Amino acid sequence: MAKREDEEMTESGHDDDEPEGLEPEPAPGRVSSSDVKSGGAAPRMARYGEGSEGSPARRERGVAGPRDGLLTRAGKFVRDIRSELGRVSWPTTLEVRNTTIITIIAVIFFALYLFAVDRGLALLIEQIQRFVNWLFGAA
What we know:
By secondary structure, the chain is mainly α. The protein has three helices and no strands.
C-alpha cells in the first residue's frame, strides 16, 4: 500500500497533504549597521515612535478614545494588583521558618568568622609593630 502512495505522489509531483499553490515565502531582508548611511543611527538605535525625519511621534498603545477618569483607572489598578497577587506562589509557614533559621545560622557563622579574622589581623599587625620597634629601636 505504501508503494502505491509513493507512485501516486511521484505522478502528481506533490504530496496530497500540502495545499496546492502555496510556495515558501522568501526570508525577509536584513538591515545591518553597514547598510545604513554613515550619518544616521544604526537601526537598533532607533527609538520607539520616531518618524522617518527623526521627530518624536508619541503614541500610546491601545488608547482609542478619551482617557478614563482617575477613579476608574485607580479601581482598575487595584483589581490588577489583586489578580496579580492571586498568581503569586506564597511560601508555607514551614518554609518561612526553615529559611529564617538558615539565615540566622548563616549570620551567626559569618559574624564569628569575621570576628576571628579581625582579631587575627589585629594581632598580626600588633606583632609587626612590636618587631619594627624592636628592630629600629624606636620607643
